[in-house]
UniProtKB/TrEMBL annotation:
Alphabetical list of SUPFAM superfamilies matching this protein: P-loop containing nucleoside triphosphate hydrolases (SSF52540)
Keyword Iron: yes
Name of the molecule in the record: ATP-binding protein
GO terms for MF: ATP binding; electron transfer activity; heme binding; metal ion binding
Cytochrome c domain residues: 166-332
Keywords: ATP-binding, Heme, Iron, Metal-binding, Nucleotide-binding
Region (Disordered): 1-23
Length: 398
């Protein structure tokens, strides 16, 4: 098969040629956009799932839907070592520009509030990069979104942005990837702001994406967050959707899969979108002709597994220290071969048993892995990999 015409695209956040299995989320979001634009009450949205299930891709697709409706949009990726102020300000700056409010005075006022919010933590001796808001020429608005209390400031900021959007009969959507990495104070402020906005009926929503424990992070911050957001678990694709993710792009290039080949592909990928793209690319490059057969899948499997071992699993494993790698291997051994539990959920006490150590002595390694996003804790006393089949990969490494 011609590699130049290979339609499959394994990549971090890279949209696949066929966004299969997400029609329900896209349709539901269109309803949210229409309701909010008409002043109807609606909750913000949170997408959760493992690495490689397509959360970022879906987040981008939802943003595109908002843009098509004429909304102002902005996106940021949360980082554990970064305050929310500057990245959110950049996202809202873009959203305000997209709104295209006809009154420059009103727009400049809101831009000045955004600048005020961004620069609040910068002291008199702050570096230029911390005092300057790229692209915002409007003067800082003193006494608005600059109290120093991020909860108060964020409420004021989003209220002003929402008012600007309401003036032109549109809305603003802020998209936050890796939302679980927000600081504690920032999470609390974001929840409070969303609560205030919903009570006042302002057309601003937050769409967040994160790991499976994100709902617990939000709930720990504000008890009402369970009612504040609409939570959607993004999981692996059904057999039909997985087949469509392979067949539709192939048909565009005048190629097809046999029924047995599609079955073999699902057995190999288990429906995980990233795996589908990795196997799809390898099979296409190695198959001699169309239709692609189950034998072609078998021949290409080692190359696909090598791609995943290096680019998907290995790159994450390399981020861990020796002690953390020992902890990860112990998790894999404690979980064992459980085909129905691809995340390898285990009790922390069982990991300690495998390593022959007291659980308390392993806390530093566990906490570091949690911060690096390699594992998560969905419930007290239990941990799991953030990457599907990571345990299986570790067991094959010896």
């Amino acid at each position: 098969m011609d590699p130049i015409r290979n339609p499959y695209a394994p990549g971090a956040g890279q949209r696949p040629p066929e966004l299969a299995g997400r029609d329900e989320q896209l349709t539901a979001f269109d309803v949210v956009l229409e309701r909010v634009a008409r002043g109807r009450p609606e909750r913000s949205l949170v997408l959760t799932g493992l690495r490689g299930v397509g959360k970022t891709v879906l987040l981008n697709a939802l943003r595109s839907a908002a843009v098509r409706k004429g909304w102002g949009t902005g996106k940021l990726e949360a980082r554990p070592d970064q305050s929310l102020r500057r990245p959110l300000s950049s996202a809202l700056h873009q959203a305000v520009r997209e709104l295209g409010h006809p009154e420059p005075t009103e727009t400049d006022h809101v831009l000045g509030v955004i600048r005020s919010f961004a620069q609040r933590d910068a002291g008199a001796d702050a570096k230029l990069r911390d005092r300057w808001s790229p692209g915002i020429d409007a003067p800082v608005v003193r006494g608005r979104a600059d109290s120093g209390d991020v909860e108060i400031d964020l409420v004021e900021l989003l209220t002003d942005v929402g008012g600007l959007a309401a003036d032109v009969g549109k809305g603003v959507a802020v998209f936050i990837d890796e939302m679980q990495d927000l600081g504690t104070d920032d999470v609390s402020a974001l929840c409070a702001a969303c609560h205030e906005l919903s009570q006042n009926g302002l057309p601003v929503i937050v769409v967040g994406a994160g790991l499976p424990h994100l709902p617990a992070v939000l709930s720990a911050s504000k008890s009402y967050s369970e009612r504040l957001f609409s939570y959607q678990r993004i999981d692996r694709l059904s057999r039909d959707a997985a087949d469509r993710a392979l067949v539709a792009p192939a048909s565009e290039e005048d190629a097809e899969f046999t029924t047995d080949a599609l079955a073999a592909m699902y057995d190999a990928t288990r429906g995980y979108p990233y795996f589908i793209q990795a196997y799809g690319r390898a099979v296409w490059d190695l198959a001699p002709r169309t239709p692609i057969t189950a034998d072609d899948v078998a021949v290409a499997a080692p190359e696909a597994e090598e791609e995943l071992a290096v680019g998907f699993f290995g790159s994450r494993f390399e981020r861990a220290t020796p002690a953390e790698r020992d902890y990860l291997r112990a998790m894999a051994d404690a979980a064992g071969e459980e085909p129905d539990d691809p995340v390898g959920s285990v009790a922390t006490a069982d990991v300690a048993v495998v390593l022959g150590k007291k659980p308390q002595s392993l806390s530093p390694a566990r906490d570091a892995l949690l911060k690096k996003g390699l594992i998560y804790s969905g419930e007290r006393g239990r941990i799991a990999f953030t990457v599907p089949h990571f345990g299986r990969y570790l067991r094959t490494q010896g």
